[in-house]
Amino acid sequence: MAKSIKKEKSSERAVSLDKKDMAILQLLQQNARVTVKEISEKIHLSTTPVHERIKGMEESGVIKQYVTLVDQNKIDLNLLVICYVSLKEHSKSAGANFIKKINEWHQVIECYSISGEFDFMLKVICKDMNAYYDFHVNKLSQQENMGNVQSVFIMGVIKETHQLVHG
Amino acid sequence: MAKSIKKEKSSERAVSLDKKDMAILQLLQQNARVTVKEISEKIHLSTTPVHERIKGMEESGVIKQYVTLVDQNKIDLNLLVICYVSLKEHSKSAGANFIKKINEWHQVIECYSISGEFDFMLKVICKDMNAYYDFHVNKLSQQENMGNVQSVFIMGVIKETHQLVHG
DNA sequence: ACTGAAATCTCCATTGT
DNA sequence: ACAATGGAGATTTCAGT
Fold it and tell me: Which structural domain range is residue B123 located in?
């Protein structure tokens, strides 16, 4: 129970999961700390198969990670910004360099490569506007090869879930 | 251990947390299933205060939820789309109606109200382009009061983390 | 594959400093 | 406030069906 997930086969194709596996996943997505016992009662199975199915899904990489979600405002991180970035040059090394920096900056909690006029979309989290200004001026814009940067400020959170459901 | 978090004071002001609380949070964010014992060894405290601190942070709402992250591709959800929406009318009831629908649609995993020319940004997850087309035509566009809709397709995931770190 | 039970380990309340 | 202890309950393994 203390150990974190080890194996994580490269994110490729879908794994075959039956209805019971999906039911287990739904419960785990809602609460990473549900007990095997509780799951087994809800889906009418004994603990052994439930435990084995969970282990199997951890090893096949269906289950990526168990995480704790922290309220950003409660730890004084009050600003959420979507930031669009285009690079001047699109060589492989130029992109790799940018990606390396993205992974170092802990203000950047998400980064996607996207279609359209920009190359990347970043989700940035900061204490306040001063902190974002500092990030923008002293980190992002300091990068060589930086093209346009455009910020969209998030005014309110309507929905945030991690529950993946088919259909 | 089986129970989910109950209290969750409305998301308002920062809560005072010391260095040890933050260290506990870092460990819990990385792995929601670390044991109290393991945390207590890493931060050089006995289990009692660690357990009490965690309970305190659950009750004050600093810890929002323990969740399991599932690999979307492994369960055959292969398309991730950022979707911008503007409404024609901005009355309170028109907005509330839209928000209600957003919460019903499980394809929408995130929704923010944003600054700029659009009103909302949605993150939508689907099996494939056909499924997204169906969502777009039969759900989103069917909404009354819908203004412009613009889709940005995510081609690659560079970074996705939930680890909040002070800056 | 699933059941049931046994063995091991963790949680968590109590007690004491 | 923190350390140490011990019973309750969970996980995890192993036999059997």
Answer: 72-153
